[in-house]
Amino acid sequence: MKYLIGILSILVIYALAVLVSNNRKNIRYRPLGVMLLCQFVMALLLLKTDAGNTGIAAVAGVFGHLLAYANEGVNFVFGGLLNKGEISFFLSVLLPIVFISALIGILQHWRILGFIIKYIGLGSAKSTAWGVWNPITRWRRRSSASLKCLSR
């Protein structure tokens, strides 16, 4: 039953996307199907294999260490603010979010985050044939004119 509900929810989301689309004739279903298939394959690899579970545990460990560093920083700055045994939403949730946001800002400034996002996008665009590489305009959506040029 849970698989039926999952399939039905995917179909409802596709139906809603078609319903609100302003250009229904130009919807390309193949890239959507390929990305959905890639998502299922990645989910199976990450959740059903030992290597996937090890990878998820490693990523969770890295973020666990980051949150531990954030909590130590909060305790250093605001250590005596609360009574023993009390918890504050501001100190335990919001300040680690500020720490992680600052870390993301640093990664973006050093162009590490952009580099990662660029190649994830490149891989997904290549796997779905969503765009055509053009050295002048970079990636652009495939149009009927570019498809004619490729077929020659």
From TrEMBL:
Residues 9-81 form the Concentrative nucleoside transporter N-terminal domain. Keywords: Membrane, Transmembrane, Transmembrane helix. The chain crosses the membrane at residues 27-47, 54-71, 87-107. The keyword Transferase does not apply. It holds the Pfam family Nucleos_tra2_N. GO terms for cellular component: plasma membrane. This is Nucleoside-transport system protein nupC. The gene is nupC_3.
